[in-house]
Write a structure and sequence with these properties.
InterPro entries: Cro/C1-type_HTH, Lambda_DNA-bd_dom_sf. By secondary structure, the protein is mostly helical. The chain has helices at about 10-20, 25-30, 35-40, 50-60, 65-85, 90-135. It has one domain (about 5-135): 434 Repressor (Amino-terminal Domain) (Orthogonal Bundle).
Length: about 140
């Protein structure tokens, strides 16, 4: 089984870098990282680079906050999946990969639900303050 399919950072990093017209060599040089390592990450040969490495690339490629958050999440996910592959039998890899994806979606839905609830609370407070001010 090809384990590269379980990792998400490589294609996203390459896509963001190319969208901005930045070569691997230029990105690596500006971030103060090894160009060979960046190439290996984008090809999926090195997975789960550390937070510092990813943060330097995010600054170098000048990503939007949403893109930076996504890239950081993908790097963290890849680090978890790397440990799954190291520590679980191949038969479990696809299941655990799907479980990670599901957990990410559920987490996003939970955050969205919390934001909706908070907005409703703020709107209710504003209405109450307006009512009290009129009374």
């Amino acid at each position: 089984m090809d384990t590269k399919n379980f990792f998400r950072l490589a294609p996203a990093l390459e896509r963001f870098r190319k969208q901005r017209g930045v070569s691997q060599k230029a990105a690596a040089l500006a971030a103060g990282i090894d160009a060979t390592r960046l190439s290996a990450i984008e090809r999926g040969r090195v997975v789960g680079p550390g937070k510092d490495f990813v943060e330097r690339l995010i600054r170098t490629i000048e990503m939007t906050p949403d893109e930076a958050d996504l890239l950081a999440e993908l790097a963290a996910r890849d680090r978890v999946m790397r440990e799954v592959i190291r520590n679980f039998p191949p038969a479990a890899h696809a299941f655990l990969d799907a479980a990670l994806d599901a957990a990410q979606v559920l987490a996003a839905e939970d955050v969205a639900e919390a934001e909706r609830g908070l907005r409703q609370m703020v709107q209710a407070k504003v209405r109450l303050q307006a009512f009290v001010a009129r009374a």
